[in-house]
Amino acid sequence: MKVRTRFAPSPTGFIHLGNIRSALYPWAFARSQGGDFILRIEDTDLERSSQAAVDVILEGMAWLGLDHDEGPHYQMQRMDRYREVIAQMRDEGLVYPCYMSVAELDALRERQMESKQKPRYDGTWRPEEGKTLPPVPEGVQPVLRFRNPLGGSVAWEDKVKGRIEISNDELDDLVIARPDGTPTYNFCVVVDDIDMRITHVIRGDDHVNNTPRQINIFRALGQEPPVYAHLPTVLNEKGEKMSKRNGAKPVTQFRDEGFLADAVVNYLARLGWSHGDDEIFSREQFLQWFDLDHLGRSAAQFDEAKLRWVNAQHMKMTSDETLAALVAEQLRARGIEPDARLAGICALFKDRCDTTLVLADWAQKFYRPVQPSAEDLGKHLGESVRPAIGMLARMLEGCDWTPESIGAAIKETLRATGLKMPQLAMPVRVLVMGTPQTPSLDAVLALSDRKEVVSRLLMGQKPV
Q1: What residues does ATP bind to (predicted)?
Q2: 451 assigned to a ligand binding site
Q3: pLDDT tens digits along 275-307
Q4: Are strands 143-146 and 175-177 parallel, antiparallel or unpaired?
Q5: Buried b vs exposed e over 255-269: b needs ≥16 C-beta within 10 Å?
Q6: The pTM of the whole model exceeds 0.85
Q7: Residue 177 class from Cβ within 10 Å (0-12 exposed, 13-18 middle, 19+ buried)?
Q8: Structural domain containing residue 36
């Protein structure tokens, strides 16, 4: 049977990294098995669902390269199909109308809690042989309840948690349609998974309590349930469940903050799955290695410092041209139009950056005037070095504009003045780049505009 997985988010809030991990694993499993990955938007919560949240889901998945083979399917567009299955279940006696009001149900639950029982529907309106049902109240629209099996248990082999078994006596008769006829979540999910031929459901463990109910509906409809894998929760840096309420960022914000898609995929993959001790790997390696047997059972904790480290490693592995394209977008957002130097700038600085945003900060220095701090000028630009600065400026006016020729000019200046390299290099860096710390000075100058370099150095001859 061909593997078919799905990601089925509710667009009731902006999708964050904890949510998107529940897309990454089913996507990876489908890709690793030559299967299909289906995107389904569970938008039946009309009050809380929003198009903006849908857009972030689609945008975030596209950015991360989590491409889907089918969809997005929207549950609100499948209402006729749900009603068709409900009618079928009514005909087969699998559901029944329940006229218990909300007030009656609340009172029942209160009595149960007072007597230290589990609060649950007691089957008042469930038809049984020889049972007399209460009189139908006038003007009340009933809910439809599923006839959950009596006795026995529901069991499944969870790919993360192992064998789970729930007694049917713990499960009451689930409402599958509200008084106005709209179907409920657990019912819609089962119909969708049947129609979309889902073979593996990989989702958060907050759904574990839904699973036995869904399995019973599958079997009532004559279908075998899919394989389940319930992923442990992702915690934020404070150890709380990651959520928008607890400060989680929309996944697209990481893109805007300069993280690479492959690095985020790498980091998220390790946030609940492992391949030995491998920390850094490519997307291709991840898909080659991924399986459901090495999913972790413990809650994983998000660590932005670790994400930044992973991103830094991926930046070193990424081609200069790819980085230049990303940095160019960020420079244009600042009103800077980069030129052909940008790939070389990225090559020179990428090893000291943990995001493309930081890399763009370095690149900006080559396109806009810098303003050295008074502290750096005072520390590095003393009177003794000013003659050497002027000499170097004059030599740079006429030499070939290559790292080799620039390096030769620097060495000649050092020889003529008797200065050590740091005594000259530090003030030159401060004047040209606004900071005393840069990569190799000859390479930095070669990527800079000659006229601008000479102008800044000549300015350095004058007292601060």
Answers
A1: 244
A2: no
A3: 989 999 999 999 999 999 999 999 999 999 999
A4: antiparallel
A5: beebbbbbbbbbbbb
A6: yes
A7: buried
A8: 1-95+152-317
